[in-house]
Amino acid sequence: MQHIMLEGRLGRDAEIKTTARGNKYVSFTLAVDGRDKDNNKTTTWYNVSSFQENHTGKFAEYLKKGSGLIVMGTPSFGIWTDRNGQAKLDINVRATNLEFPTLGGGKENGDGQQQSQQQTAKQSVNTQVAAQVQAPEPEDDLPF
Asked: What Cα–Cα distance (Å) separates residue 74 from each residue in 1, 77, 80, 118?
């Protein structure tokens, strides 16, 4: 199974959606910046969805456009043709873990209670993620 870890920013507010079977999931786009071989800035867009119950609840309220986020999950790819006949690549990630990269960052809006609630939610989510991540076991057969 393939796994991917991305750090980027949300391209739009997260949306809570429901499947035909009644399962809730959260959906959003993630922009990840990088550099090409000529050192020009590039942005790669990922479609992210998560069926994790804690991601579709209170956590989703903090997934706002422009927010920084670390996404861990399983990638999938799809090719489609646009109106001009150009082949396009969709990069989709089914998230298993979401984490805010820093605590207390973001815009000042003068609402101390909202900032406090956001920090509490971020700390709670980061604690949950840390508890789910297990350290890999060392391998004795490494070639280096």
From this structure: 8, 10, 20, 27
